[in-house]
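Private note to self, pasted from the team thread so I don't lose it. Backbone tokens:
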């Protein structure tokens, strides 16, 4: 996790105001031992400060469980979500933050809860060789934060992270497109590369996508489309190796003569 994100989270936690909570929910993780709200909250905060995040989260949950209408309950909800986040228990953090939003949808701390949800998805983004469902969820969560609270400091940080999220999604499209290329499934490959160019225009994958579109269109015998893709590549990324490769491909074949078929590929052993 980047230092800036944690600092932003910690700053909000330290500044959370107190307000009454309107609902509570029973928790079964700890045995019920009646305690006053001050003891529960201060004990949870000590656990958090000493890095015992899972225990802190459970004790913050106890504040809400035992004193749902106290002025500490709402603060404890967000502190619980924050503690689960620090413990890398992202699903529980998301659940806690979403529960806060369901109870307090218009609360002034709602942007923080949305930001925490987005960060939980963001922290789980895997490399492009794996399923990108989490990446899409991170994109959706950051977009939701930006739409609802565009002027908040959390939205500003989320927008910075959106570039990485989109780059991951574009990378997955490229991986699939290259797979189809190797199998000489040119139409399927073209659809994937076209999606990168159309939907992820600001990512680092666009130059390669345009070059591979040139390759795929040539293989399909659609020379005019290949020339258009190469022209866009040359106009926007003239100094890249991808443009050189596209330029060489276009110049290699006379008009109306399709490129030779690709060599057969041997499927990899499972």
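Design output:
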């Amino acid at each position: 996790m980047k230092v800036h994100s944690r600092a932003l989270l910690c700053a909000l936690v330290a500044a959370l105001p107190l307000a009454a909570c309107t609902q509570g929910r029973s928790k079964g993780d700890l045995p019920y031992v009646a305690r006053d709200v001050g003891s529960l909250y201060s004990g949870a905060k000590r656990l958090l400060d000493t890095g015992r995040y899972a225990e802190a989260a459970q004790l913050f949950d106890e504040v809400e469980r035992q004193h749902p209408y106290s002025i500490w309950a709402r603060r404890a909800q967000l502190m619980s979500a924050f503690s689960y986040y620090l413990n890398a228990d992202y699903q529980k953090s998301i659940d806690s933050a979403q529960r806060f939003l369901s109870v307090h949808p218009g609360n002034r701390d709602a942007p923080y809860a949305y930001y925490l949800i987005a960060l939980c998805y963001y922290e789980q983004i895997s490399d492009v060789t794996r399923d990108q469902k989490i990446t899409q969820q991170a994109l959706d969560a950051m977009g939701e934060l930006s739409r609802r609270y565009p002027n908040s400091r959390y939205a500003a940080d989320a927008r910075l992270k959106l570039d990485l999220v989109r780059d991951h999604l574009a990378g997955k499209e490229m991986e699939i497109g290259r797979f189809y290329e190797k199998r000489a499934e040119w139409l399927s490959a073209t659809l994937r590369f076209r999606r990168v160019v159309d939907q992820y225009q600001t990512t680092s994958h666009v130059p390669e996508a345009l070059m591979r579109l040139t390759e795929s269109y040539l293989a399909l015998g659609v020379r005019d489309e290949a020339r258009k893709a190469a022209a866009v590549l040359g106009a926007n990324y003239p100094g890249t190796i991808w443009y050189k490769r596209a330029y060489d491909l276009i110049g290699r074949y006379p008009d109306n003569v399709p490129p030779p078929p690709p060599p057969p590929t041997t499927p990899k052993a499972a």
